[in-house]
Amino acid sequence: MIPRKAAPKGAPKLAPKLAKGSLLPKRQDMSGDASHLAIAPVDIPARRESVGVISDDAIIARQVADALDARRTKPVDLIHSRPGAGLDQLLVPGLTAIVVELDASDAGIGRLKRICAVGPDAPVIVLMRQLDDAAELSAIEAGADEVVDLTPAGDFNGAELSSAVARALARHAKLARPTHPTTGSSETARQPIHAPAPLVLVQEAPDAMVVLDRHGAVAFVNPAAEELLGRAADTLMGKRFDLEIGKGGEITIVQPGGETRVAEVDVVETERGGVPARVASFTDITVRRKLEMALKSAQSGRDAALKRSGRFFSRVSHDLRTPLTHIVGFADLLQHDKLTDPVRHAEYAASISDAGRAMLDMVEDLLSVVDANGASTPEPCDLIKLVRNTAHFLQRDSDGSGPDVAVDAPQTPLVARIDLAKLQRALYRLVAGIGRDADDGSVMRLSLRQTGKQARLTVRIDGTSGKPVALPASLEDSDPLVTPADARTGFAAELLREALDAHGGALQLARDGGSVVAAVITLPLKD
């Protein structure tokens, strides 16, 4: 190896000799010690034309490239993409044109609209099957620059396609060179290129997404948003969406058909073409909200059922103890007291007998509820006949004392789906308990009316003066029960409440001042 001679001290340094196309390291002092690369002249090959072809058939894509090569001095680069694969492959820089194979169906025109809306800035030439004047017009309106006929066998005129591409490129180049405002000369517009990749993401996103311009008007809608909003994209373009920047908002969407959807909305700021814009993404939570409501309703129903069960068994235990306490108490008096008065002896025995009969009735009613819950099936029943049968039983079991019974009901049937045996027994027990202590000459009125989709039965007693009299206090849960008769009436009211709950009905009490003057029974009618 021959040693390199050192340069004389003080002699200027010579730059090394570089081959053409090399990079020359160069250090510049520009307010710091940052290193820079000075680029020397290089040989850059002429840019080839790139054409994107969207087609299911790779043979058609190759034929497109061959047809364009035949009319050009330089070969054409082919970028083949299949429908539904997204537009990412077509976002390479320098794409010359896009050739799309499609038919004249609504799906084909819709795909063409999306390509023209979110695809690269290049002319779009359509190879269309079943081409006629109407189909060609639809394609042009969707954004196509040129339309070429494609036979069912997949053949087309190569020269016609090449000419169509040339015309489209000429028009596109002319639109891209606006006249200078001062010189009047035509020059290429020097504007920043904004990659349309964000719109492609919006287009292909599974969530509903809407792009809004700076004024809040719709500039783009993806297919998922069309489905969620229930409206086509062309009907939404330009419409204002008053959505604020932020996350977690919830909106209710009423579609044109009346269906209601619930969605969470996230709105973020972005830019579109260098202009401020917003992207709103909608997450459909309709199913989640319905499930939450169903769970809430089920929980509410469960709590109500537990409350009814607790109230029912509390009332049953209380009402069964009342006659039992009378039986045990008077039996103790008879056992331990030396009674010489036959009148008192008979009174004690009568009290034991009454309390025993009351307790027997309640046990039978309780057993009937258990049997009805286990075996009965609701069936259509005319409530007018139910009320008239109840009045008939009251009059038959009457010993001639107590109130008269009057029924006020419409002539047309009122049909409900009920468990007849269960409801008939509970209603009779309640009405009998209400009228047990009524004065002679009073009138028990059973008034049946239809209110909307419900039947409404009002039970009241009018005294001899015509004014309503107070009903037994045992109808209310809050009132203490002190006699076997009161216990029997309160127990009957609880049985009727239980039966009505099972049928979607209710038992309510009407008041006059502080006294209960009527029992109001409601039942849903059969559709």
TrEMBL record:
Keywords, comma-separated and alphabetical: ATP-binding, Kinase, Membrane, Nucleotide-binding, Transferase, Transmembrane, Transmembrane helix, Two-component regulatory system
Main location: membrane
GO CC annotation terms, alphabetical: membrane
A family per Pfam: HisKA
All copies of domain Histidine kinase, residue ranges: 315-527
Reactions the enzyme catalyzes: ATP + protein L-histidine = ADP + protein N-phospho-L-histidine
Sequence ranges assigned to domain PAS in this UniProt record: 201-239
EC number, UniProt record: 2.7.13.3
Enzyme class, spelled out: transferase
Protein localization: Membrane
A GO biological-process term: regulation of DNA-templated transcription
Topology of this chain in the membrane: Multi-pass membrane protein
InterPro entries found in the cross-reference section: BphY/WalK/GraS-like, HATPase_C_sf, His_kinase_dom, HisK_dim/P_dom, HisK_dim/P_sf, PAS, PAS-like_dom_sf, PAS_fold
Gene3D superfamilies: 1.10.287.130, 3.40.50.2300, Histidine kinase-like ATPase, C-terminal domain (3.30.565.10), PAS domain (3.30.450.20)
Keyword presence, Acetylation: no
GO molecular function: ATP binding; phosphorelay response regulator activity; phosphorelay sensor kinase activity; protein kinase activator activity
Protein name, entry field: histidine kinase
